[in-house]
Design a protein that fits this description.
Number of helices: 3
Strand content: 15-25%
Number of strands: 5
Order of helices and strands: EEEHEHHE
Distance between the termini: 41 Å
Radius of gyration: 19 Å
Length: about 150
């Protein structure tokens, strides 16, 4: 794997600005030496929503950088000396957002999941990883929805 700059230092600062309408603006400033953007601004219904959106924007930029740095040909299959394909490990990150106008939160979920729209319209990042890296993929339990 390629580590472009192992000595990244700096801070990420989050400032929340309440709006007259009860919503929030989150301003995320980064002084990280390899930061793709110095400032990100996002709106949210609540403080937590605004923070989540800003952090997701930053995460999206870093996912894209990580994937581009690997510069892996999508169709290349590495083979052993005997000609057998060598299986590799990949961290597959799927991100999908939409604005839904529905009768309920349940309907918003149900109508998002139906028809495979999530997979078809998602932004997908695939990063090759070492088999022993301690990554726990985020999973949502359907039990959490109740």
């Amino acid at each position: 794997m390629n580590d472009a700059n192992p000595d990244i230092t700096g801070t990420i600062t989050i400032a929340l600005l309440p709006q007259d309408n009860g919503q929030y603006i989150c301003q995320l400033s980064s002084s990280l030496s390899d930061s793709p953007k110095e400032n990100i601004q996002s709106y949210g219904q609540t403080k937590e929503h605004a923070i989540a959106i800003a952090l997701e924007q930053l995460a999206d930029e870093y996912r894209q950088i990580a994937e581009e740095q690997q510069d892996i040909d999508w169709r290349t299959v590495e083979r052993s000396n005997s000609g057998e394909p060598i299986a590799k490990h990949y961290h597959v990150i799927l991100h999908y957002e939409r604005i839904a106008e529905e009768e309920s939160k349940f309907e918003a979920l149900q109508n998002t999941v139906m028809g495979n729209l999530v997979v078809e319209n998602a932004k997908i990042t695939i990063i090759e990883i070492d088999p022993d890296i301690p990554i726990e993929p985020l999973e949502r339990s359907w039990d959490e929805l109740g």
